């Protein structure tokens, strides 16, 4: 059977060089123009993303609930807490006030607060007085309505407070509020705030807590859009560090505790940036040294490095143009292109420097074209399949690499043919040594022994360590807190005593229905936990209309005994009559003025208190959040949501870990799909024997990687499996180059170029394997092992012909 790849090669030889160059210009110009258009259309929304939450997939399938969860996360993930610590409370408060005064007007914050909102008693009491008849809690309203004794008990309790002098509010409105409902509702609000979970309490107008002999004063902030751009130099986190460093002094004994996702995102962003610089610098230096030493000429170095920079630049522009926000991890992974993109250049310049039989750069291009084309097709199929994965970071990685590799391929076949051949050729180091090594290993039994040994050892290792072979993801392992930030989170957890592990999202067709559904959930949750677990919820502050109606009915019943209550409080008969009429008139005038967001009568301090709980209208439905202070039993908590179609229980660490397991299985299915497509493609261009030989390499790669991971007790996580499918595309290049070289003269140069390209690629991915960031480390490690296996197997497969 005639090799169809040679026919394809002959076809492209007939394409004029000007057309190829035109294709190169069109491809790069198209991406640049697309990027500029996106820059204009999406102005201010294009940039680098370093948010840790965006690194993991979203775990909710229903679109509206997913958007509601995203809305909540957009707020809570931008929350920051700074605890100012000192043995002396007044000193801690003084420093906190200094920090607050410097940050309060910063554009990096949507809001920032030090002084407790409850301290603004005038606004609170005015609201509670105006709507006192709407805010009687349901349990108390039921007690009042159930019997006359219940109403009488409530009235007597109010008299006890009035005469006992234990009220929080002055008794200025006693004639119009004889049952002290304003006082009662204020106490309920304060209990709801206390029940929301933290151990912080109001002291001298600020939130503070004493722990282990030190006072901690809390500053709370929400990052603005500008301040949350953690990849920029002037962001909220760097400003907090700068201000606190100046405000705190060793002499005063003041220290700072930082808590919140943005601090960790900032640290991971800086760490990733440092790793990018290190990986890129080390890889580039190694590549430069290799090129200079091997080719003894600066021209291969200049053009190869230029090709790499163009490829990386085009990959960045294309990714930003399509996705608008590119995650910093995509950029870290993209630096691996330094090793991959140079493969095409190395194949060209090896022949350019040493192959005297080829008389022009165009002949060199024609000589290597079929191998390069098969390589870009095989790699492109693998990356293209990953574009269909329901995971944005994976889409970005695959698209980034695909755009860069196409650029590098076009540069090699369209631009390099214009490079003049050197006057002296055959001046490439290591080719003679490599030729001797290859000739010593060219016996069939050597190649077969190596290949069979790899298969057997891998299978035996998997059999021995089969208990370690498992697909399991743990979200918490993706980012390891270290150093000061780890100690800060431990201290903050001990001081604040607030460690939510999940939350409920409650939906409704209307605002009132959402509040009603949440009230139902609250009852069930309190029954489940016996009231031992605190929570924050919207309906604790803004009851549903049904509950407010019940409150009004209870208030109406209390009014029947208003004259007796006023008389017991010492008012004379005339005043009793006037006050009673005032109460009746107030009831009639306000009976339809329910407290609701829709009516616009929810005060700012309530909105602030429930800012993380009330999500409002999202895609035509209304959502609110019940946020427990801790999760004691995930299964029991989830069972409440499973029993109600309007309730969804979200536990990020558990849900996303489970979703990563599902995505890992999906990636394996993608691998099978790519495997089948690749075999069809290979069978079209090669004989059955050659196609089976090539397609057996990915299978061997999987065996070796799984065996190594099992031997070292490393789970096959999502990112390591992702690395496998990427190896599939990159690793096939080596065996394809070997196959394409079989019928060509001066056959040692192509295997030599393959060896050099393998070395450069393995250096890049080896650097990724050393990364401290778990996803990058796992991808780098699996690709490092897989590429080594691919090259070894392709080398010895080539010896068997």
From TrEMBL:
It is a multi-pass membrane protein. The chain crosses the membrane at residues 21-42, 276-295, 302-323, 329-349, 369-391, 397-419, 445-465, 663-682, 694-712, 718-736, 748-770, 776-797. Keywords: Cell membrane, Membrane, Transmembrane, Transmembrane helix. It comes from the Bacteria. Residues 210-417 form the Membrane transport protein MMPL domain. The keyword Transferase does not apply. It is found in: Cell membrane. SUPFAM superfamilies: Multidrug efflux transporter AcrB transmembrane domain. Its main location: membrane. GO terms for cellular component: plasma membrane. InterPro entries: MMPL_dom (IPR004869), Mycobact_MmpL (IPR050545). It holds the Pfam family MMPL. This is Predicted exporter.
């Amino acid at each position: 059977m005639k090799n169809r790849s040679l026919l394809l090669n002959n076809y492209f030889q007939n394409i004029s060089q000007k057309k190829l160059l035109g294709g190169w210009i069109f491809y790069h110009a198209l991406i640049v123009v697309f990027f500029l258009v996106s820059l204009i259309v999406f102005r201010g929304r294009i940039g680098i993303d370093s948010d840790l939450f965006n690194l993991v997939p979203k775990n909710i399938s229903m679109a509206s609930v997913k958007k509601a969860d995203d809305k909540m996360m957009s707020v809570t993930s931008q929350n920051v807490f700074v605890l100012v610590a000192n043995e002396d409370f007044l000193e801690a408060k003084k420093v906190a006030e200094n920090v607050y005064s410097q940050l309060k007007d910063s554009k990096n914050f949507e809001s920032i607060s030090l002084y407790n909102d409850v301290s603004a008693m005038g606004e609170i009491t005015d609201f509670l007085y105006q709507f006192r008849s709407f805010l009687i809690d349901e349990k108390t309203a039921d007690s009042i309505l159930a019997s006359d004794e219940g109403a009488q008990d409530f009235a007597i309790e109010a008299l006890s407070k009035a005469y006992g002098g234990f009220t929080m509010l002055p008794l200025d409105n006693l004639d119009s509020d004889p049952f002290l409902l304003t006082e009662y509702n204020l106490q309920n609000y304060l209990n709801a705030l206390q029940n929301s979970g933290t151990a912080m309490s109001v002291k001298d107008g600020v939130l503070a807590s004493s722990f282990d002999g030190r006072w901690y004063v809390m500053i709370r902030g929400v990052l603005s859009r500008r301040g949350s751009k953690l990849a920029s130099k002037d962001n909220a986190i760097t400003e907090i560090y700068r201000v606190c460093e100046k405000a705190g002094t060793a002499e005063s004994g003041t220290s700072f505790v930082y808590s919140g996702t943005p601090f960790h995102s900032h640290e991971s962003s800086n760490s990733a940036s440092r790793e990018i610089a290190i990986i890129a610098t080390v890889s580039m230096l190694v590549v430069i040294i290799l090129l200079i030493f091997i080719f003894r000429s600066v021209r291969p170095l200049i053009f190869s490095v230029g090709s790499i920079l163009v490829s990386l630049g085009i990959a960045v522009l294309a990714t930003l143009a399509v996705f608008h926000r590119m995650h910093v991890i995509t950029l870290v992974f993209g630096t691996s292109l330094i090793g991959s993109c140079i493969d095409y250049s190395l194949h060209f310049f090896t022949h350019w420097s040493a192959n005297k039989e080829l008389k022009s750069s165009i002949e060199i291009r024609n000589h290597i074209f079929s191998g390069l084309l098969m390589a870009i097709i095989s790699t492109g199929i693998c990356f293209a399949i990953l574009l269909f994965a329901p995971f944005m970071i994976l889409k970005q990685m695959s698209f980034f690499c695909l755009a860069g590799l196409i650029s590098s391929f076009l540069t090699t076949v369209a631009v390099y043919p214009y490079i003049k051949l050197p006057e002296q050729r055959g001046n490439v180091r290591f080719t003679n040594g490599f030729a001797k090594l290859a000739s010593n290993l060219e016996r069939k039994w050597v190649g077969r022994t190596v290949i069979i040994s790899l298969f057997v050892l891998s299978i035996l290792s998997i059999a021995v360590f089969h208990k370690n072979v498992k697909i399991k993801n743990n979200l918490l392992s993706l980012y390891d807190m270290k150093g000061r930030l780890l100690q800060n989170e431990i201290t903050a957890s001990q001081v604040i005593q607030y460690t939510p592990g999940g939350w409920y999202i409650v939906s409704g067709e209307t605002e009132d229905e959402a509040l009603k559904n949440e009230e139902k959930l609250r009852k069930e949750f309190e029954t489940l936990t016996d009231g031992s677990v605190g929570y924050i919820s919207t309906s604790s502050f803004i009851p549903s209309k049904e509950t407010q109606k019940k409150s009004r009915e209870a208030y109406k019943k209390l009014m029947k005994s208003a004259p007796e209550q006023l008389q017991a409080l010492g008012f004379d008969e005339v005043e009793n009559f006037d006050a009673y009429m005032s109460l009746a008139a107030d009831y009639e005038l306000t009976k339809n003025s329910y407290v609701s967001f829709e009516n616009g009568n929810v005060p700012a301090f309530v909105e602030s208190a429930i800012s993380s709980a009330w999500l409002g209208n999202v895609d035509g439905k209304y959502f609110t959040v019940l946020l427990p202070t801790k999760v004691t039993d995930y299964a029991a908590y989830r069972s409440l949501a499973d029993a109600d179609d309007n309730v969804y229980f979200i536990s990020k660490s558990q849900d996303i870990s489970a979703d990563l397991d599902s995505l890992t299985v999906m990636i394996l299915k993608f691998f099978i799909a790519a495997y089948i497509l690749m075999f069809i493609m290979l069978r079209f261009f090669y004989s059955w024997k050659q196609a089976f030989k090539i397609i057996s390499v990915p299978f061997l790669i999987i065996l070796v990687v799984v065996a190594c991971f099992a031997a070292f007790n490393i789970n096959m996580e999502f990112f390591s499996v992702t690395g496998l499918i990427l190896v599939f595309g990159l690793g096939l290049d080596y065996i394809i180059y070997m196959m394409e070289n079989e019928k060509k003269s001066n056959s040692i140069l192509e295997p030599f170029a393959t060896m050099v390209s393998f070395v450069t690629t393995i250096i890049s991915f080896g650097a990724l394997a050393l990364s401290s960031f778990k996803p990058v480390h796992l991808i780098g490690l699996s690709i490092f092992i897989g590429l080594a296996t691919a090259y070894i197997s392709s080398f010895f497969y080539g010896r068997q012909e």
